[in-house]
Amino acid sequence: MLPNRAAVEGIAENMHLAEVKGRSLWADARTRFLRNRAAVISLIMLCAVAGFALFGGLVAQYEGDFVNFSLIGSNAYLGVPSLETGHYFGTDSNGRDLFARTVQGTGISLMVGVVGALVAVIVGTLYGATAGYYGGRIDGIMMRIVDVLMSIPFMFVLILMLVIFGRSIFMLFLGIGLISWLDMARIARGQTLTIKNKEFVEVAVATGVRPLKIILRHIVPNLLGIVIVYATLLVPNMIIFESFISFLGLGVQEPATSLGALINEGSRTMQFGYYWQIAFPLFFFVVTIFAFFFVGDGLRDALDPKDR
Amino acid sequence: MLSFVFRRLAVAVPTLLILVILSFVLMYAAPGGPFNSERPLPPEVLANIEAKYGLDQPFWKQIVNYVSGVVTSFDFGPSFQYKDRSVNDVIAQGFPVTLTYGFWSFVVAVTVGVSLGVAAAIKQNSWVDYFAVGVSIGAQVLPNFVMAPLLLLVFTLWLGWLPGGGWNGGQWQFLIMPVIALSTSYMASIARITRSSMLEVLNTNFIRTARAKGLPMRRVIWKHAMKPTMLPVLSYLGPAFVGMITGSVIIDVFFSTGGIGQFFVNSAFNRDYSVIMGITILVGTLTILFNLLVDVLYAWIDPKIRY
Fold first, then answer.
1. Distances in Å between the alpha carbon of A194 and those of A27, A187, B287?
2. From A138-152, B161-175, B238-252, the region with the lowest mean pLDDT
3. DSSP A207-232
4. What is the mean pLDDT of residues A245-274?
5. Which helix (H) or strand (E) holds A70?
6. If you count Cβ atoms within 10 Å of the first and of the last residue's Cβ in chain A, which end, N or C, has fewer?
């Protein structure tokens, strides 16, 4: 007996319901990440901080480099944070609007962190993948170089460079770029060592794909998960690093500013009771670092199944 | 073992040389000499001064002189800014200070960090554990340049218990805040590493065996678990050392303790190259020696390492 036509069509129509929906690695990771409450809250906070840095300038009533001369010397009662005067975060000791300065400082600090991490991702991943893929003597030499560079106290060398070539944000980026990739290279190498023995790499080798192409097309994409995790964890470290130098007055130069420089300025005036001058930059610093660490941890739990 | 040490030294020495040469090349590449000021000196005076400091000689001769001076007699040359003292004087004045509070910070970070981590691991999921984890997460966002103002705010400005800066021959009141500010974030990292390492070790078979044959917990921890637990901690000590010696710059500047960091930053603003180089090389040497020590200790504790 033939099944009736309508039933067959009905089944055919509803076939898609029976299909098992494939879940990619990334979809899995996303569900795991979204289940991590601390990480999600941190991500939202991070977006808020980024929004503050990007659009805070529109809300600010004053330019960051505008000096309100009438406020100099009367910071204690006229420069306090208030909605009426338009100085939401008060003014700094030079009579400049601290809100606008905090917006700028947060922006520069975030930018330094992201650029540092980006350099680390690009240089470190390629370096580590190359070392790991070739192995043998090339690997030995390349990783020895990393070891040597790592055992140099780079902060001192960077300050030396800043002194010699002038203090500029470009030098700062260069210096941060010089060190940020070292850890990433080690991580990428370690991961490459396990990947390069997988079948798909063997197939690529057997079909005559050139080594450089194997690294770029087959190995690097498979490193991506772990690289993203460590890049996220690297961003706060870069921000701390930059703030360290700016705290000493050797980093970002006036009138530009960063969170480290603002914390430094605030710490000089807190003895007079101008607590807002340190409180606001410190708040944004701590929130940003915290959020990055938690997001990084969340990403690690989500993307790095080994650690669970 | 001895050959292992020698092989490590064989890497350490070139590393140091690279550092010396690198910083010298950087200095040499600097646009403008150290004696170019806003009011230019007459050329013959400048030539005399440069001759005195050996700056008129060709590059290779300068570098050979410098390196041989450093290597053979630890002579970092004269300061370019202060005519009455050499880099060695600066180091002799500042280094003992840095060494003192650096040593104490290191001791505090390691002892407090390790005990906190071990306590947290043994009493997992108790209030001790939560406290330790909370502290170590919180301290992550408190690098030295954040800790220093906060400590000053609380202990000097509000409570008035401690002096806000200075050194005074290293009296304990002057030592407390620098040590806390410098050690906090490293203590936190050490606590975190110790905790996870100890938890891992406590779940291994040999610990279960030790427990099963009836050893008391205290003995199991001290005799069996402690050694493998310390391995990851030990490998963190190298980076921690670098971090602390770098952080000493902040401490010196913020608390006016008069260590090498203060000279370093002052020289950075004065473009006093020779002092900066001397301190960079000194710090680099210390770091490399310390890493060597850690490696040797590691090889000594971990029988799995072949050397």
1. 23, 12, 32
2. B161-175
3. TT--HHHIIIIIIHHHHHHHHHHHHH
4. 81
5. none
6. N
pLDDT value at A263 more than 90: no
How far is residue A283 CA from its own chain's centroid? 18
B288 close to B16: Cβ distance less than 8 angstroms: yes
- Chain A residue with CA closest to B274: the answer is A160
Which residue from B minimizes the CA distance to A290?
Answer: B141
Structure tokens at B171: 């009296």
B250 neighbourhood in chain A, CB within 8 Å: 244, 247-248
pLDDT tens digit string along A149-183? 777 777 877 887 787 777 777 888 888 888 888 88
Among B43-47, B179-183, B184-188, B256-260, which stretch is predicted with the lowest mean pLDDT? B43-47
User: Which ipTM was obtained for this model?
Assistant: 0.77
Virtual torsion, Cα A151, A156, A162, A167, nearest 10 deg:
120
B65: burial class by Cβ within 10 Å (0-12, 13-18, 19+)? middle
- Nearest of A164, A158, A162 to residue A176 by alpha carbon: A158
Mean of per-residue pLDDT scores for chain A: 81
Hey, are the CB atoms on A282 and B279 less than 8 Å from each other?
Answer: no
The H-assigned helical ranges of A120-210 are 125-134, 136-150, 154-165, 169-195, 199-206
Q: Inter-chain contact B146–A264, Cβ cutoff 8 Å?
A: no
User: Rounded to an integer, what distance in angstroms lies between the CA atom of residue B245 and that of residue B259?
Assistant: 11
CB contact under 8 A, B141 and A270: no
Instruction: Residue A249: list chain B partners with CB under 8 A.
Output: 265, 269
Q: Is the separation of the CB atoms in B65 and B74 below 8 Å?
A: no
Extract the runs of DSSP E, i.e. beta strands, from B75-211: none
